Amino acid sequence: MQGLNSVNWINVLLVIVLSSFATMFAMANLTPIQLHFLGVSSGSVPLYIPVFSAFMLGFFGGVLALTFSRRKHKHEIARLKQENERLQREVDNLRNIPLQDDV
C-alpha cells in the first residue's frame, strides 16, 4: 500500500508529538495578561496566545524568506545549467577541429 510508507508515519508521529507539547504548554500558561504595545492595549488574554502568535509570525516570516531564497537559487541553477551547456558545446567544437602539422 502506498499510503503506509514509513515517511508518512514519521510525519504523523511528529505532528502528534508537537501538538501534545503545544497543548501542554498552553495548559501550563493560562495566566491572564494584558498587552500594551505602541499605545494600544488589549483585553485580558492567556499568556500562551501572544507566545504562539510570536512563534507563528516568526515561522511564516522564515518560510517567506526561504521561499525567496529558493526562488533565487533556482534561477541561478538554471543560468548555470545554460552556461554549462554552452561551454560543453564549445569544448566539443574544439575537440572536433582537425589537427594541422606545421612543416
Oligomeric state: single chain
Terminal CA distance reads 73 Å
Main sheet: strand order? 1-2
Mean pLDDT over the residues: 86
Please report the number of helical segments: 2
Element pattern in H and E = HEEH
Largest sheet: 2 strands, antiparallel
**Helical proportion, percent range:** 55-70%
Give the SSE map.
Elements: H1 6-28, E1 32-37, E2 40-46, H2 48-95
Antiparallel strand pairs: 1-2
Task: Please provide a written account of the structure.
This protein has 103 residues and is α+β, with helices and mostly antiparallel strands. 69% of the residues lie in helices and 13% in strands. It is elongated and about 90 Å long.
Task: Summarize, please.
This protein is an alpha+beta fold. It has helices at residues 6-28, 48-95; strands at 32-37, 40-46. The protein has a two-stranded antiparallel sheet with strand order 1-2.
Descriptive keywords:
single chain; 103 residues; alpha+beta; two-stranded antiparallel sheet; 2 helices
